[in-house]
Amino acid sequence: MSTATATAASPVKAVIRSRLFWPAAVLTVLLVANLAFTPDFFSVHLQGGHLYGSLIDILHFGAPLILVSLGMTLVIATGGIDLSVGSTVAISGALACLHISDSSDPGSVGTVLTALGIALGAALVLGTVNGVLVARVGVQPIIATLILMVAGRGVAQLITDGQIITVTSDPFKLIGGGYWLTMPFAILLSALVVLATVLLTRFTALGLLLESVGGNPVASRLVGIRAMRLVGLVYVFSALCAALAGLMVSSNVSAADGNNAGLWIELDAILAVVLGGTSLNGGRFSIGGTVLGALIIQTLSTTVYTIGIPPETTLVFKAFVVIAVCLIQSPVFRAKLAARGTRTRRTTRSHAAGPTNREVGA
Amino acid sequence: MNANALLTRLRGQIPLLVTAVLLVSMFGVGSAQYDGFFSGQVVLNLLIDNAFLLVVAVGMTFVVLTGGIDLSVGAVVALSTMVSAWLVERQGWPPLLVIPLVLLMGTAGGWLMGWVIHVFEIQPFIVTLAGMFLARGLCYTISIDSISITDPQYTAMAQTRIPLGSLFVSPSAVIALLVVAVGFVVLHYTRLGRNVYALGGSEQSALLMGLPVQRTKTTVYAISGFCSALGGVLLTFYMLSGYGLHAVGLELDAIAAVVIGGTLLTGGSGYLLGTLLGVLVLGLIQTVISFQGTLSSWWTRIVIGALLFVFIVLQRLITARRR
Predict the structure, then answer these.
(1) Nearest-by-Cβ selection for B133 from A152, A322, A329
(2) Is residue B216 classed exposed, middle or buried when 0-12, 13-18 and 19+ CB atoms within 10 A define those classes?
(3) CA-based Rg of chain B, rounded to a whole angstrom?
């Protein structure tokens, strides 16, 4: 990939080598490609004090995905994965809508704040269950979170009684569908959470500790990092992010659908994280990359809608994107590509399936 | 064999024993609670209604035993129903040609995924996830809507009942049991089966022992692909339609059946007959809920989740003690 041929173009090379280059390039290409189908794609105009335009729409509808992917990034950084986020999205939306629709005064700020408290509290419990299972009991992350993924959707339907609960509440509507300072509130909210996470992980030791735990849990424990607690914590964080996303989704449509809210969002979130350049093996992570990855997925969906291809076929595109990104990330693939270029002798690689000492407790 | 070794051996079978006890006691409670529950036909209906799940779970068992996971099974099932329906109904191909073609397609798809997993050392989880996207997406490129099948050979397969005394089974159930039998023989009495267990126990050791790691790995995913395609064919008989939304979440049911059947998710330990018991437990949960009548369908998911939780923690305790 980067065979050192010349040192002349080093500034260009530095940009290309940046971890954000490829996601950013893909996003740019996608956005520009849209221009061919909708000439006014990049125009953003102010109407009635609100900003409108395709770009705003992408940010607006992508906000829940950005939040879920953010939590997923930290989980993946520790070498785990969280499949239960879709269920958490459904449960938090269902709980909030149930509380608001049952209350005597659905329009009051107090009711909505209580609803938010209930939803986030439930997420805290769900995240703790995941965290304890992974960090304390030592279950593989895929399996531990699979439990909640299966049961959670049932729980969400139990909460809504299999119905779609609709609510009419202006303060609640603000979270996902409202505007504040000319921007959709959802964009501002997710930007705030992203910013807080960046500050927390990049300007304190937390990010370093997370990467250390993801890189080698046993070594981290031996140097005195409380790996167990950190791993438990990222699942709680992921659940909270998912709950916030669930509130956005249900608020945007003013309804809670236990069956369909957040369906497949865990897969999109994992995809966003992988697209952003965070390795699924854990270790280094990139929050900026994740945000770009989430925006790529949202742009892809928007593009498919505007071109008029049946939206379900986006799955085919996603499949190819996943495979391409994984191949590029795979060291073996790069080695083979390089070997094909230079015709060097093939060395037999040992297939030591890298992280076998995944368990934190060990 | 001394007593200690016997004890260790027995301990590995605890999940299987628990599942068997659970199955019998669920059936017992159901029989005591509901009229008409205690009949051979209820048991046979478990097989008839879950034939496709059983076939898919057999394939999943092979993959899980090697320490991998196959998330694409549900999507491959859906794609198989879709391709069958499209070729038979829209293109007028004879079913006898379509069915082998679909099976071949599933096998090739699985083989390809196994090849990518092994050669490029990418996690099975993400590769099969891509396979899942691709297969579901391909369903929709064929048709967004459901295609119903009116072909006489398919309807014959759907309606045929094989009498067993006063009871009956469907051809699909017989096929599913055959698959279990073949799987059992392959897994426990052939070289391939031994390699599967060795690979799941420790890939590094298997490689050092000179076992064909690559061939085994690609084979198990090919088996899973074949089983998914066959499951799709059976589902086509059952549903008499092809639809991109068929078998949504089937991969979760299959994994749940494998886990409840006592196969360790870290690979290397488990029994195919356990998977059969696991599928029967899942089917029985649904039967009990439908007999109860007042419970809604989502209780199925909650109960399956709770069972998964119990079994995974149980597995964890057992392996922790063994170490």
Answers:
(1) A322
(2) buried
(3) 20
What's the domain count of chain A? 1
Give me the pLDDT at residue A5, please: 47
pLDDT digits (tens, 9 = 90+) for B6-22: 666 666 677 788 888 98
- With respect to residue A25, please indicate whether it lies within any of the assigned structural domains: no
Closest CA to B128 of A196, A115, A267: A267
Domains (range + CATH), chain B:
13-322 (1.10.3470)
Q: Please determine, for residue B73, whether its predicted confidence score (pLDDT) is greater than 50.
A: yes
d(CA B197, CA B62): 9
Which CATH number covers residue A126? Answer: 1.10.3470
Tell me if A123 is assigned to some domain.
yes
Q: What is the pLDDT of residues B160-196, one digit of tens each?
A: 888 888 888 899 999 999 999 999 999 999 999 999 9
**CA distance linking residue B181 with residue B175, whole number of Å:** 10
Q: Do B138 and A316 touch (CB under 8 A)?
A: yes
* pLDDT at residue A362 greater than cutoff 70: no
Please name the member of A155, A162, A327 whose beta carbon is closest to the beta carbon of B120: A327
For the question of whether the overall pTM of this predicted structure is more than 0.90, the answer is no
* Domain boundaries, position A101: 47-336
- How far out from the chain centre does Cα A138 lie? 24
Whether the predicted pLDDT of A360 surpasses 50 = no
Shortest CA gap B1–chain A (Å): 30
**Residue A19 falls within a domain, yes or no?**
no
Any CB–CB contact under 8 A between B316 and chain A?
yes
